[in-house]
Amino acid sequence: MKTIAVLTSGGDAPGMNAAVRAVVRTACENGIKVYGVIRGYNGLINGDFIEMDLRSVSDIINRGGTILYSARSVEFATEEGMRKAIRTCQEYGIEGVVVIGGDGSFRGARDLSERGIPCVGIPGTIDNDIACCDYTIGYDTCLNTIMEMVDRLRDTAESHDRCSVIEVMGRRAGYLALNAGIACGATSILIPEVPFDIQKHVIERMKKTQRTDKKHFIIIVAEGCDVDCEALAKEIQAKTGVESRCTVLGHVQRGGYPTVRDRVMATRMGNYAVKLLMKDTGNRVVAAQKEDVVDYDIFEALNMKKNIDLDLYNVAHEVSI
Ligand code: F6P
Fold this sequence. Notes:
Blueprint: E1 3-8, H1 16-29, E2 33-37, H2 40-46, E3 49-52, H3 79-92, E4 96-101, H4 103-114, E5 119-123, H5 139-159, E6 163-168, H6 175-183, E7 188-190, H7 198-210, E8 217-222, H8 229-240, E9 244-248, H9 260-278, E10 284-289, E11 292-297, H10 298-303, H11 310-319
Parallel strand pairs: 1-2, 1-4, 4-5, 5-10, 6-8, 6-9, 7-8
Antiparallel strand pairs: 2-3, 10-11
């Protein structure tokens, strides 16, 4: 391949820049021309490209967000949008595309691949909800951000004998909530993968610990549970007598300097993705399995299922009481 493009798509994640850097540098060092596509698939449709060189990606390994900007493209989901994107790729001589994003972005990559533009996906999402991967870029940074925020909330909850109900991101998955909940000693962790009953899993657990003289509480709720954080705080206060406050952490979770783990993983994956394209291998998703970087067929990857670690959930249940 002589010319490739790289784009970031969907919700941004810390470490995406490190992945872009690795893609650009690997391509340049192997004599491949590389375009950075601006604002995801919208940029691919409109030819919003920047030709990148070794220095275009200097000083970004440490930066959150994405220098290429990101978007969830509505137009690309249409046949017409897809056709325009293919035409633009042909005009610029783009023979392969690296797509950094979540599974929505991979569906776009699959559709492009099917129409003759080989794509390689790199998993970039704070949610860690891509089935073929143990780990997605941005997840570790996000977990550490949540931990820091919850530690702060604990200080004030403790000072006032309060209950802090905290909603964390994860539209369809509870990985962030479960692991942050363990790291922060939450009395209850509510995740969409495990059915729950507020009375049994929150109120009664709190009452049980109240009898052991516990006076302040942390309850973590995953966004995907569809539980109203404010309403839950009110219910807890009414039923336990513990003054309660709700905090929705929101988009603060998506920003910040990527951790070591995210930078290293992003660098390895970016390099791996270009090596796949250099072998004329498209239609793949790069994945982390334990500590290894591997790849899957994109169709297969999108059909895989990932289960939350129930043992981990049970550990939390037993220890954080
Ligand atoms: O996909 C990552 C994610 O941060 C989810 O956890 C969250 O539900 C969603 O994106 C928020 O998306 P937006 O930034 O479009 O509000």
